[in-house]
Design a protein that fits this description.
By secondary structure, the protein is α+β, with helices and mostly antiparallel strands. It is 35% helix and 10% strand. It is globular.
Amino acid sequence: MVESPIGPLTAVRDGAAITGLYFPAHAPAPAPARLGERDDAGFDDLRDQLAEYFAGTRHAFDLHLAPSGTDFQVDVWGALRTIPYGTTWTYTEVATAVGRPGSVRAVAAANGRNPLSIVVPCHRVIGASGSLTGFAGGLERKRFLLDLESGDRLF
C-alpha cells in the first residue's frame, strides 16, 4: 500500500518491475490473481517518486514498468507516457500517436485498462469536447491530478 493525497494506492510488483498501481474501488477492479499476496516491502522507489509527483517536483516517472496487456494496449500505454506533464490529449490524438487514427474506441478501451494509474498518465486523456471522461479512480481523482499538474491545486 502506498499512501497518497488521493487515497491509498495498491502497488504490485513482479521482481524488479512494477506491474500495477490501483486506486481504492478501482474500476474495473483488477483480477485478484493480478494483485498477488500483500507485501508492502520493496516499493521505496515508487513511494519516493509519487511523493515528488504530488509535491509538484516530479513531472515524469523513472521506474521499471512491466504492464501486462495485448500488444495494442501496450502501444497505447506507451503513447500515454509521451503526453507531457500538465497537458491533455484527446482519444483521437492518442489513436493518431499509435498509428491507428480510426481506432478511437479501442484506444479508449485500452486507456481504461491501464494497470499503472498515475505513473502511466491515462488521466491526461480527455474527450474531444474537452470534457472529463471515465477514469478508474473516479472523476474527482482525475480532476485532482489534472489540477495538480496545471498548478491549480492548492494544498
